[in-house]
Fold each of these.
Amino acid sequence: MIKLRACRSCKNVTEQLKCEKCGGDTVLEWKGYLFVLDPNRSLIGKRAGIATPGEYAIKVR
Ligand SMILES: [Zn+2]
């Protein structure tokens, strides 16, 4: 099973130790999976401050 990680700064979900979007550190402790197709139409995406489509974590510790 692949353990997914989430970026501390941009909440991007990835398998890498470093976020490929912003280069920040990723952690295993995160909750809530969020898939954003259109950030401008997604209310949750707007609230989370997501600007680009992709997979995100709702809460990152
Ligand atoms: Zn990031």
Amino acid sequence: MLRTISKTNSSTPQPDKPAKKKLVVSSLPPRQVIGRLLTYLQPYRRRMFLTICIYVVCVTIAQFYPFIDRILIDNYIAVKFIDQGFYVVVIGAVILHAINMAGFMARSLSITRISQDLLFDLRSQLFHHVERLSFNFHEQWPVGKTMSRFLSDVSTLNDFLTNQIAMLFHDAASAVIIIILMFVIDPGMALVALITLPILVIAAATLRPRIHEGWEVVREYNTRFNIFLAENISGMRVIQAFVREATNYKQFRSSNDTLVRSWLDVTNLSARLGPIVEITRAAGLAAVLYVASYQIGLTTTLTVGTLVAFTSYINALWGPISTFTNVYLVLQATMASAEKIFELLDTLPKVMDAPNASVMPPVKGSITLDHVAFSYDGTRNVLHDIDLNIEAGQLVALVGQTGSGKTTISSLINRFYDVTGGRVLIDGHDIRSVTQKSLHSQIAVVMQEPFIFTDTIFNNIRYGRPDATLAEVIEAAKMANCHDFLSQLSEGYETLAHERGSQFSGGQRQLISIARAILADTPILVLDEATSAVDTQTEMLIQEALERLMKGRTAIVIAHRLSTIRKASQIVVLKEGKIVEIGNHESLVNMPGGYYARLCRAQMVGEH
Ligand SMILES: Nc1ncnc2c1ncn2[C@@H]1O[C@H](COP(=O)(O)OP(=O)(O)O)[C@@H](O)[C@H]1O
Ligand SMILES: [Mg+2]
């Protein structure tokens, strides 16, 4: 069921794109969501049960305090008679208090441990799932949105599954015990004390839907805030370079402001419950005192001790009661977070291993694209009827204008997406019939924007082969022409790379990622514009490294520089998703009107 919330803080403009749309909040039947949520407690059911038992015991003990006061007042203080019995009761009270304190410590520790274990499980499950999701998911979901699931939503669920559930048991137990004790002490008075309760219940029920809606709005703005934040922090260089600080700061303040307002709106609503709880509590107390003023002295049952006990009980009872009025709200927040997390967990990867997928044996590296067609969005084809045969060990160059489909072809060979028509074969295996793991482990990719992780250079180079030794890493680095500058770093290969390797130049990052590919030692290699955007000196280093790397492997190279392309066994020229020229340098260089011929002429002119 989808519901549109029109109630937005329209007074402030929204910085992020989705804010221009209306908020769409989905809601599943709560019972379904809670059922699924409780499965997360399954592994901890014994500890949870024990904790709840401790809660109930503590609560019971605590509710006996007014009862004890009543005995002390009526039997000893009011009649001015103190004997041994008085001290026995006092010592008994002290012992009960000690037990209660011990129980309090035990349950806090226990709840914290369950809670931490549960957080661990939830986060691990989410990460494991996100790792399996295909490229199209990561292209469509902003990082900030995924982060929101890991941070705010996971902690809301955790809070519910541990604190809230335990609190509920705690409060339900206290309420039941207090009401029983009140009836045991004086049934008539108990009825008087509870007379204002229905008013509170009705008030809470009327405010509920509005508060619910308010929380959903908060959640949505929170996600948008996170998306905005994540994007702005990772794009900070561009922000600074284009002097966008002031504009973005304004947008940030507006997003921040919307978030704060939505919080205030909903807390305003919830705050209305507070006075109602207070008024009904005070009215209950007044009713008891009023009735008592008539009865004290007239009846033998109502004593000063009973009155003192009753006032304590009314005060104690309104705590759990106000919690109950809030339970629904807490549940709503939990439901909203749970649904968002389940939405993510239920998103299936578009590319999945076939149920009977086999492990692709080590391949020689022949690749066939058989009438391949592909569309990203299901409507516009970006590749049409691509037929290409690459023999094992061949070097194939893909050339063509930006947007002609080169990167798409390399992504399809990696099966980052599934073809929409035709098939891709590697050594005769349709890549959809083998496991992605066995496929990916035989293809190394060097991308235009190599990704360096916040880790040592050593670990970054052996990313695809975590068991490689330092000697092997150094050997790969030497082949990749990056040993010279890496060994000059203050801590050599143990130097920690900054996020995305920002302390290295583009060319250096490229060389590191080539070393990574060399070490991965796969029969197939895909290089997507690995040599573009670097200076001639670095290009020569990369060129040399690539030649060593490509030896004995099937290599698909996307490049613009002739020096890289001309040695290719096949040069494939793409235009608007179709192969328009194919052949080696000699056969294409003089083709009248050919794209490659033009490319050669342009670069030869440039070289002289
Ligand atoms: N992730 C994507 N989602 C939708 N369309 C895409 C995506 N990536 C590329 N395209 C489109 O597919 C076409 C081919 O892109 P691409 O293969 O990246 O070209 P090239 O690498 O030759 O520059 C382009 O029209 C581009 O707009
Ligand atoms: Mg590209």
